[in-house]
Amino acid sequence: MKRILFTFIALICLDVAQLFAQSAGRENFDLHWMFHLGDVPDAEKPGFPDHDWRRLDLPHDWSIEGSFRPDNPAAAEGGALPGGIGWYRKTFTISGTKSLKHFITFDGVYQNSKVWINGQYLGNRPYGYATFQYDMSPWLKEGVNVIAVRVDNSRQPNSRWYSGSGIYRHVWLTTSSPIHVNQWETFVTTSKVLEKEAAVQAETTISNDTREIVKIKLVSSVIDNSGKEVASQTRTGKIPSGSQFTFNNTFTITNPDLWNIASPNLYRLVNKVVQNDQVKDTYTTTFGIRTIAFTTDSGFYLNGRNTKILGVCLHHDLGSLGSAFNLRAAQRQLQILKEMGCNAIRTSHNMPAPELLDLCDKMGFVVMDEAFDCWTKGKSLYDFSLYFKDWHEKELSDMVRRDRNHPSVVMWSIGNEIPQESDSTVIPLAKNLSSVIKKLDNTRFITCGLHELAGDLGKNSIVPALDLIGINYSYSTYDANKKKFPDMRFIASETTSQFNSRGVYHGPLDKTVGISNDMQSSAYDNGGGRTHQVSWKMNRDRPFFAGMFVWTGFDYLGEPAPYTYPAVSSYFGIVDLCGFPKDIYYFYQSQWTQKPVLHLLPHWTWTSKDTVDVVAYTNCDEVRLYLNDKFISTQKMSDNDNLSLSWKRIPFVPGTLRAEGFKNGSLVTKDEVHTAGVVSRIELTADRTSIDADGKDLSFITVKMKDANGVLVPDADNLIRFEVEGEGEIAGVGNGNPISLESNKGKQRRAFNGTCLVILKSSVKKGVIVLKAKSLGLTDERITIQSH
Q1: Is 417 one of the annotated active-site residues of the chain?
Q2: Given 370, 452, 494, 660, the catalytic residue
Q3: Span 146-164, pLDDT tens digits
Q4: Which string of b and e fits 120-145 if b means at least 16 CB within 10 Å?
Q5: Residue 185: active-site member
Q6: Catalytic one of 417, 421, 559, 727
Q7: pTM for this structure?
Q8: Range 199-217 burial, b when 16+ CB lie within 10 A, else e
Q9: What does the pLDDT look like over 186-242, one tens digit per residue?
Q10: Is residue 608 within 8 Å of residue 650, measured between CB atoms?
């Protein structure tokens, strides 16, 4: 077995609401901005009158607040929502402008942002997914100051999916001494990780922005999860005026608790910059100790243990919330995926919000961190290819420096389905991108999602620039490329692309049902594209593949293939846009987890003339099927080559269809579907009935249309209206229907196949939040959420 072993220790955040590494003087800057949609002359000037602008808190996405229209320039591929130009302004008071440094950091602005402080232009950033920082210190005044941001998302289409518009991620204000730890300039690695001992190296760069030479001490402590100091070191150094100095520290951690998927154990590194016995800066970082390896014959190893990467691709939007980042919404997505058995995320096709990586660190996911969807040749008329030549090195190096200390990140992806990947002229560019990464971090593997695999990859492709070949689809090339590159490592960077609509069943089961008049796709795993079952089996049965990333974990706004407007969101997700699992979710749960799984589909509400194809996703040895307690037959997993069981053309009889799952001859689980009557009531269920009164926390309320016996009515499309009382508001509504054109920010929603969603957001005052749901002909329903 040929193996390259990379060892690594990474920085992550103790509190995932904060960036993974931060100065003591770093504070959230999201509150109390003024916003205007449309271009305005002179809005960057401090005295500009903005009193009639809209007051809001960040993160903010103005596109999701708009109306779906076929003539919006983004088109259906971009979500059919409006773009345009928007302005943000904030007036704030600050002190210590002569003796302190003040930096403003934006985690993401889509796109083409320009920033001013007190009328002084600070700079622009065209890439909508970049995190960037400006030093405001020279232009700040003691007292009142004004920051202005112009966001230009008017040139469309510029994306193959929904991008959103505005300052859609967090903003931070960092106040520090002129002697301080630089942003992203702490890098921690390990040269040795053993059961009894780990050797940890920490590289920390300090800036001296004073006018004199300074002598400083860097006092560093490693704190374990219980709060106990387990290692410490003090180093001294002199830094000339206007210069930087890098400290290299080594710590020995005895009996280290390793970071892994099942137990993502963490430590904290506390760095204090001391001058003349005064602490000038404190920089606290959370980290995890682990080793990674990709091999040519048996895939991925985490801490020396062979581990199959069971991953999904994720776009950055959060369904009805749009692209405006919300910590709880992202956490909920990961919780749903974790329950499915997923252990890996690909950030397709751009750098994510930093808090998503914090969550992956804390929850135990490995990550493919991806930079670009295109290079110099574009895929959309106004995409990043227009800026790539001038900006790619800056964006890539910033991404690596920002994210290189996360233990979850095990791969860097330099691109996705780059149009020139089989063109020999692009090889120097690929090598340049790889070299940018290697200079900043040589502890991880570099990959790219390749799809032009028919040519001679040995001579005319970017493969020589990669450590790890990522194959997007191209299933027929799996074995051929392994023979062609026996010394390379492989991962299925993108697979499947099966079309599924939640709760829609187009038969027969053994026929691919692609385009349909109802603009929905079958949830039978026969909706077109490579089936989930075939894709998983092809990867599972090839040990040299490190794992796979399914397209996609969640549905996302935009790219509504195989349809177009009025379809405005994808059909690819294992989970729909609201976070409701589709049937295929339970297939992965049966394959990726060890707990007994048995999921029966479809529903059992048909007409008397129907015959129904029935499927069971299970990891049981055998399943016995009953209709109204009458035995139908037994199916055994060992009797077929499929990864699921099926009973074709069962005549529909009203009542109960029951499946019983057996392992080693014992009944271990069962599932039932029942014939539903007419809708008689609304059922409200909250994912959490107690949330934080911080103005950001969310409770996701599932709304189901039930009959008199409590059975979900699977084709119900009732319109439900919502009212909120108390210390909260509606942040979004949805139903997972790809062709729904209802507002994501309204106060009503039509059920899709019996279900819809309301997202409640807390205010900053503790108290009770009451949601009322009303539908014509039904009794009103309510649910109470406590906000603490």
Answers
A1: yes
A2: 494
A3: 999 999 999 999 999 999 9
A4: eebeebbbbbbbbbbebbebbeeeeb
A5: no
A6: 417
A7: 0.96
A8: bbebebebbbbeeeebebb
A9: 998 887 899 899 999 999 999 999 999 999 999 999 988 889 999 999 999 999 999
A10: no
